[in-house]
Amino acid sequence: xxxxxxxxxxxxxxxxxxxxxxxxxxxxxxxxxxxxxxxxxxxxxxxxxxxxxxxxxxxxxxxxxxxxxxxxxxxxxxxxxxxxxxxxxxxxxxxxxxxxxxxxxxxxxxxxxxxxxxxxxxxxxxxxxxxxxxxxxxxxxxxxxxxxxxxxxxxxxxxxxxxxxxxxxxxxxxxxxxxxxxxxxxxxxxxxxxxxxxxxxxxxxxxxxxxxxxxxxxxxxxxxxxxxxxxxxxxxxxxxxxxxxxxxxxxxxxxxxxxxx
Amino acid sequence: xxxxxxxxxxxxxxxxxxxxxxxxxxxxxxxxxxxxxxxxxxxxxxxxxxxxxxxxxxxxxxxxxxxxxxxxxxxxxxxxxxxxxxxxxxxxxxxxxxxxxxxxxxxxxxxxxxxxxxxxxxxxxxxxxxxxxxxxxxxxxxxxxxxxxxxxxxxxxxxxxxxxxxxxxxxxxxxxxxxxxxxxxxxxxxxxxxxxxxxxxxxxxxxxxxxxxxxxxxxxxxxxxxxxxxxxxxxxxxxxxxxxxxxxxxxxxxxxxxxxxxxxxxxxxxxxxxxxxxxxxxxxxxxxxxxxxxxxxxxxxxxxxxxxxxxxxxxxxxxxxxxxxxxxxxxxxxxxxxxxxxxxxxxxxxxxxxxxxxxxxxxxxxxxxxxxxx
Lengths: 261, 374
Fold this sequence. Notes:
A: 261 residues; alpha/beta; 2 domains; 8 strands; disordered N terminus; B: mainly alpha
């Protein structure tokens, strides 16, 4: 608290001195007596003294050992331009104009590419840039966005230098995107999961079926407009109570066999 | 068998369901198979019986509230699930955790890896027909769960990490008891090895079963022991060290052929390495706080997406978190479960083998359905 007063600008100091004592502390008269008869010289001296003290403190703070990072405030990552990234340049050199945006956040490079050419891009990255390993494939739903509702995200890894790269594409609702299963086999189930939970259709997928919910499930749970509490799917035990389309549609032959087993 | 193209019996292929309620499927996995006699012509895993919509639930919760839900994914390795989520969140929020917290985390994670591998060894051996190791491994697992219980009060769903550190200081005497478990552990691993490693039946059932080449393993996205069993030196603890794994000295065991036996050896050696890591952490445990100074309300600063991963006992467990500006809850939190991706390779590994090998392969992939279905 004591730091505040000395650092007030010199012009305001006399005015403050005249006003504050009346409102504030009980030993009013003493303060007045002491403070009012200050001459200009004395004031200047006091201000200089205070300034010196403040400067001393600042210097001490600078000299003091830096605090450990876990004692400091967190330092959140920020977005940086990543168009200087080697893979972004390689991709841009091979297919000019394909990298719509390159962003680095928390040390991770994200390249935005058009959804129509995703297979081409992935094939180039796998065979020419050596991204042999697709770590993850997923989607994000932005229902209000004008450019297209879904982000489809590809996250890949290169073994030689342990570098990871993220591809980001935007797909509109009810617009299919090409499957990358021919590039990486592991994309198969991941795409099925995205299809199941978001309803994004992958063209040329070898077996695009629902994976976590069942065939005939009504809706795509990870869409933002799907209620968190779920929907009444009609349990399989009440096929006659609930209308068709909600419950599991089990093939007839399978039902018999499954029941027997 | 009978001739190359002649079926074993003069009947059509039989379609049969393995699971979802079957003790050897390690949960509610269903494998729909087409059989020719006892030979698997086609296998199709069907999953989703344990789907609880965890990723959807994450979107409704504050960041710290998500942590108990991560416990319930890989429920035999809750600590590493917590760790994955916390590591990712710390990346998003820019938090550096104190060294003591990192060391406590590593101890807990490695204890968890031991516990998880013990469950794997027990069930894998029972599936193949050796029931004795089960009793040995669960004895040691119980000692580890006791340590967890003493530390955080829970044995299975631990909820034992916080964004910015760990919630508690180690209880008095815990370090000694943990040392005792760690120091005695290698002798126990020798016991399991005495029972299995040179066992003729065990070798017959595992060698050359479910062979995966290194190229295939990468193509199919395998991680963890299934990938290392194929001879690929890959471990998140080494390539993207989180917490303080870069200060710890340990080896990555790898296999040669990529068969079930190699994966068994890899996991056994991993247990020894985990003991080594615990030993080093206990010896070097630094002083200091166990939590970083984090704000009361955790808030992402800028909109963005981050991916963080840890080496879970099953493989690479990744969290992909999308946050909007000033968000206190994830806009989207995707979990990349290692078991989900590893299980995908099951058909390629068993087709052409016998039904009994399917059991061995499911065991060697070490899947947990809670994590697959989320």
